[in-house]
Design brief:
It is a single chain. The protein is α+β, with helices and mostly antiparallel strands. The chain has a domain of 147 residues: Beta Barrel (Cathepsin D, subunit A, domain 1). Strand 1 and strand 2 form a beta hairpin. It has a six-stranded mixed β-barrel. A three-stranded antiparallel sheet has the order 8-9-10, with no helix packed on it. It is built from five helices and twelve strands. It is extended.
């Protein structure tokens, strides 16, 4: 007799994550009570310039599936800010996907975390720390975090319809056709740390498939007509995306 795997809703598959400052840079963090380590992505460490220390001997790490193992070669010590408190923590460096940092059981116990799966889920480190929820809303001037300490957040289809209408009205200039004018100025709310600001990158000449050349020429003509691009010559140039 054949059996099928049950289909789970997206809400039931949501993990408890958040964006927090790690080493002065906003990082996507996963709160994982099944993990016995405090792990940082090697890509995140290199991109942000966090100094890594090589271990005298590699340390084996057993993963959840039998026979699945990894080895740790580096660690890094840096600050992490959760709520209104900053901690100095030692991270194991590993190749992890999708997340920048995984905060396992040792860290959750250190900050005396309460994990609440009522609604979409929230995490409350302690009463002395501002609670943090996985739901985050951003606007142009400030970053608001919705918390569910005493009141659980229950979203329905009507809520999503209401939010969708609000966002479409607020950001009407981002929807619809592409006007032949530059978009309004917006506040830059992020920064990119360059490890070597003097480094020059050499790029290969771009090639466009024959089937897409008509679309490419139409796009170039559109951008030139709008004044977003202008023809020029240069020794090298970074491919640009005009939003």
């Amino acid at each position: 007799m054949k059996t099928t795997r049950p289909t789970r809703s997206k809400n039931n598959l949501l993990t408890i994550t958040g964006y927090f400052l790690v080493g002065g840079t906003k990082a996507r963090c996963l709160f994982d009570s099944s993990c016995e380590g405090i792990i940082m992505s090697s890509e995140f460490a290199r991109a942000t310039g966090i100094h890594m220390h090589k271990l005298p001997e590699p340390i084996g790490m057993q993963q959840a599936f039998q026979g699945s193992r990894a080895k740790l070669y580096y660690t890094a010590t840096t600050d992490i800010t959760i709520g209104q408190r900053t901690y100095t923590e030692t991270f194991d460096i590993a190749n992890i996907d999708y997340y920048d940092v995984m905060l396992g059981t040792p860290f959750l116990r250190r900050v005396k975390t309460n994990i609440d799966f009522n609604g979409l889920g929230s995490i409350v480190p302690s009463r002395a720390i501002a609670p943090t929820s996985g739901i985050e809303m951003f606007n142009r001037k400030e970053r608001r975090i919705i918390s569910s300490v005493r009141v659980s957040i229950q979203l329905t289809k009507d809520n999503f319809t209401h939010f969708r209408s609000q966002w479409k009205e607020k950001y009407a200039d981002l929807f619809g056709g592409i006007p032949l004018e530059l978009p309004p100025m917006r506040e830059v709310n992020h920064r990119i740390k360059l490890i070597d600001p003097d480094k020059q990158f050499n790029y290969r000449l771009p090639k466009c498939p024959e089937a897409l050349r008509a679309q490419l020429h139409a796009k170039i003509d559109h951008y030139l007509k709008a004044g977003w691009w202008e023809p020029t010559s240069a020794s090298q140039a970074v491919p640009m995306l005009c939003i």
